[in-house]
Automatic annotation (TrEMBL):
<dbReference type="Pfam" id="PF00128">
    <property type="entry name" value="Alpha-amylase"/>
</dbReference>
<dbReference type="InterPro" id="IPR045857">
    <property type="entry name" value="O16G_dom_2"/>
</dbReference>
<comment type="similarity">
    <text>Belongs to the glycosyl hydrolase 13 family. Sucrose phosphorylase subfamily.</text>
</comment>
<feature type="domain" description="Glycosyl hydrolase family 13 catalytic">
    <location>
        <begin position="38"/>
        <end position="204"/>
    </location>
</feature>
<protein>
    <submittedName>
        <fullName>Sucrose phosphorylase</fullName>
    </submittedName>
</protein>
<dbReference type="GO" id="GO:0005975">
    <property type="term" value="P:carbohydrate metabolic process"/>
</dbReference>
<dbReference type="GO" id="GO:0004645">
    <property type="term" value="F:1,4-alpha-oligoglucan phosphorylase activity"/>
</dbReference>
<keyword id="KW-0328">Glycosyltransferase</keyword>
<dbReference type="InterPro" id="IPR022527">
    <property type="entry name" value="Sucrose_phospho"/>
</dbReference>
<keyword id="KW-0808">Transferase</keyword>
<dbReference type="InterPro" id="IPR006047">
    <property type="entry name" value="GH13_cat_dom"/>
</dbReference>
<dbReference type="InterPro" id="IPR017853">
    <property type="entry name" value="GH"/>
</dbReference>
Length: 488
């Protein structure tokens, strides 16, 4: 069973350079902070996308460590890892064998060649126009070494002409066997939770967007959930879609991400009004992982479609741009808003999005921790990191704005920052107070305040945020039932 306590999100090399150092930090400098678990972003050998183009899940990249390091961390902290169920690396041994032998490869059926979508293997543009695209064409053309023939293979993701991420045919028996082997390996190495990355793209069906295609997607989810249940592994599907899709996943029995909360909290603090956030909190599933920041960006479209006015969203986006952010955009005209609004994600650190205001940032974290769900804190957010504009300029990759690495010396310096110490105190409070295991309510308040409350038998804690001053106050009962208070 998952712990209702705070989790850390980090790359395997972002805190001290490797998994062994991460293990040390979790038991020493960061002890008591992330008792909910640690999401280790892909530590596997990968050919691109900072781990999200894995060659295999049966090995750990030697630059990061070994499975011994993973097992050791798992002995004291629940581990969450990613499984990119939609794709695998072009450099994987499976696809390299296919590139050599073509259809005679034992792995040929792993991959989604275009004849599995169009009978004659010839793509039709009017079908592609309906799809929710992540690149201009959803396929790449490869030359088979032995025969010299060309094969067109589905590639949802990737920035290069020959994508590094090759889509898997999840209907094929060999693919299901391979996925089972990955899950069994996770189980044997103390992995507790698996995030199904890009799961919304696994169904390719003509006449649809090829994104979260119903009811077909549930056939796959049924299969993978039964596998996970058999191995006592929790699943966390990662789907950026209209919020109604998330709610369907929650009804299906999955944990889901609250991709709405980061925008709503930012909007609340920038506009100094809790009205929209209070309305949202009145009706949302509780079985969610909450976050403010991550390795990508603050979700906007399609996660908040139908919940926000695009003119108001554009004003918030413009404020973030003024503070150094950059954007991930929707490519397909069909999936933009009617007025052309096309912001998929706002790429920035959350601290910079709040104009590097310590009180506003701590208010944001307090709200996140008081909202029902399992809170996750991204490692850059732990240190109240600022936008890394130099790294973006150096690499040309907008997501590098929020992906800086920290040496042990850097970490020691960050932990001395007052804002970080205040955040750590807040995390420890969230992990320890019993009321968070009880009943949640949103208390009445004027728009320039937000009041959230938890109650469990004789234990209670409440958060009040003054949106004019960004001052946040927690009132709580101590173990003996006496009422105490502290200003965050």
């Amino acid at each position: 069973m998952l712990k209702n306590q705070v989790q850390l999100i980090t790359y395997p090399d972002s805190l001290g350079g490797n998994l062994s150092t991460l293990n040390h930090l979790l038991q020493n400098e960061l002890a008591g902070l992330f008792s909910g678990g640690v999401h280790i972003l892909p530590p596997f050998p990968s050919s691109g996308d900072r781990g999200f183009a894995p060659l295999t899940y049966l090995e750990i990249d030697p630059a990061f460590g070994t499975w011994d390091d993973i097992r050791s961390i798992g002995e004291h902290t629940d581990i969450l890892v990613d499984l990119m169920v939609n794709h695998i690396s072009q450099q994987s041994p499976y696809f390299q064998d296919f590139l050599l032998k073509g259809r005679s490869s034992e792995y040929a059926d792993l991959f989604l060649t275009l004849d599995k979508v169009w009978t004659d293997g010839v793509p039709v543009q009017k079908d592609i126009d309906q799809m929710f695209l992540r690149r201009e064409a959803p396929y790449s053309t490869f030359k088979i070494h032995e025969s010299g023939e060309e094969e067109k293979v589905w590639t949802t993701f990737g920035k290069t002409d020959l994508s590094e991420q090759i889509d898997l045919d999840i209907r094929a028996a060999i693919t299901q066997q391979l996925l089972r082997s990955f899950f069994e390996n996770f189980k044997s190495n103390n992995v507790k939770i698996v995030r199904l990355d890009a799961v919304g793209y696994v169904i390719k069906k003509l006449g649809t967007s090829c994104f979260f295609v119903e009811p077909d997607i549930y056939v796959f989810l049924d299969w993978v959930k039964s596998l996970a249940d058999e191995l006592e592994i929790e699943l966390l599907p990662e789907v950026h879609a209209h919020y109604s899709v998330q709610y369907k996943l929650a009804d299906f029995g999955c944990w889901i991400y609250d991709f709405i909360l980061p925008y709503r909290v930012l909007e609340t603090l920038v506009n100094r009004s809790s009205r929209e956030l209070r309305h949202y909190l009145a009706d949302r599933p509780a079985n969610q992982f909450t976050m403010l920041d991550c390795h990508d960006g603050i979700p906007v479209k399609p996660d908040l479609d139908g919940l926000i006015r695009t003119d108001e969203a554009q004003r918030l986006v413009d404020i973030c741009l003024e503070r150094g952010a950059n954007l991930s955009l929707i490519l397909s005209d069909k999936h933009k808003s009617e007025d052309g609004f096309n912001v998929h994600q706002i790429r920035c650190t959350y601290y910079s999005a709040l104009n590097e205001d310590d009180d506003a940032y701590l208010a944001a974290r307090a709200i996140q921790f008081f909202v029902p769900g399992i809170p996750q804190v991204y490692y850059v957010g732990l240190f109240a990191g600022k936008n890394d504009l130099a790294r973006v300029a150096e690499t040309g990759e907008g997501r590098e704005i929020n992906r800086q690495n920290y040496t042990m010396d850097d970490i020691e310096q960050q932990l001395d920052k007052k804002v970080v110490q205040r955040l750590m105190e807040l995390i420890r409070f969230r992990n320890s107070h019993q009321a968070f295991q009880g009943e949640f309510s949103v208390l009445d308040s004027p728009d320039n305040q937000l009041c959230l409350n938890w109650k469990l038998e004789g234990q209670q804690c409440s958060l009040t945020v003054d949106l004019q001053t960004y001052q946040s106050m927690i009132h709580y009962t101590d173990p003996s039932g006496h009422l105490e208070a502290y200003r965050i």
